[in-house]
Amino acid sequence: IEMSGHELEASLSDPQEISSAHKCDPCSLVFRSAKDFRDHKRGRHPSKVRIRILDENGDIVQRDLKPVNGQFVCPVCDQGEIRTRSGILYHTNKHLSEVQNPRASKHECFICAGKFPTARDLDRHFDENHPDIHEVSEDPHEDDVARAKIWNQAKIELDASTTSPLLSNYILETLSPYSAHHKGGQTSLGLHTQVGAKREASDPIIGWEPIKRPKIRVHEGLEDLRTTLASHRFGKLIELDSYSLLESSFFVQDYKQFKNDIARNLAGALIHTGSQAILFLNVEIYGRTSDEDPHSFNLARPTFDVKIVTTVEHDSCRKLIIGTLFWSALVTSSIELTSGTISVGAHNKSAEISPRSAIWGREDWELNPLAERQLRSKFYRKETFVQGASTFFQFSYWNCVPTTVFSLNHHFSSKSSMSGIRASALLFHQIMSSKSRNIKKKSLITILENDKISDAPKTQQIVADLLRLIPLNQKKLKLIDNWEASNLLRQLASTLCGAITTKTRYLCCTKHSSRSR
Q: pTM of the full predicted structure?
């Protein structure tokens, strides 16, 4: 029972009871009994709270969390300003429920990556936390468009000059682009340190202007998609002359009347989402009513636009869905052209959907003789995938699955011995999996304590140097704007890229030889 000072004086007739009342100094509340006072302190001002979280192995563990300056900080997502016991328990339990029931957190905020069970909760989150950018469906501000163009160009140039998208992604995350203003009036794009830019510039540089990360990715048109595909060897196999952007009218067609045309139009379509380009090999179209939609894909219903491109956890699969107001399309087989990942069946683990995705369809879809054959092909079965993929002759002899930092990490996870490549893979896997882009101090110590790491002295020295960069009172090494850590990790990345290049097999048949066949 909580009472203000005046209420307590009015309710107590005995002065002795007033003097023995319990007052909470932080919030100036007064309580009748010691029990009420203890309950209040336990709930509103706890000295520590025992929470449940997932450890690095995916097991649920208990941990005592203490407040800092009266506030709790979530150890999972680093969110602060949580003051009460119930607040921190509710927050950390949500992280567990998201893992145990992925469908309960299907609405994700594209700004802070927060997840919410319903679209209404997501709208409320936008109103409370991102009021300045609430209208996400409107055209982006021209400044954000300009920033997005620069970031896209930076990614393209880095992909062309590095041996692996892993390295270019890391550089772009840690070394933000900037504009260099020259004495002669020109402006150039900087992708390296300011010292290096001054050393290489023919015209003296008189000023610097950092380029902020854009809130959204902006797709300019066919040339933007063409450039994205041209920077990857798999993307070069696609001829874009027969593609055009699907207009809004396509996504508002009636399901019952046009479902066959919708399916034929999406046969061989391309999704340009973020830094990925995904080629459809097979799609299935469903209506919105219960008898037309046995898979409950009403979960993928657009809220701001005529369409939504998203992934849905369903039947123990991660499904790639195009959702509209009247129908939804399930992608049952596809190729991710910028990494070479082939998804056989409806389970798609590689798609990374950005807030704004462009869908390109073939202009000759009505005359395309491969459309019907493609829709009938058994892409979802591995034993018939080769025959089905022959609808795109460029991929008929494609037998390789490229090695990535994630597959390297998975390969080494079952091995006890430590090597330089394994240590690099473990660290970069942690970096790419971390939303805040950091390395845990515990991970560096674990690598150095392994006896076999001495067989890779160069990697051992780099890991030791990274460990020395972590302050004594910190548990993580933050990488954003950390130039020393960036230089060390760039050395590890070059070694790792060499291993990836060695392990990845090139196409068994080039585009030219495929055509000759």
A: 0.38
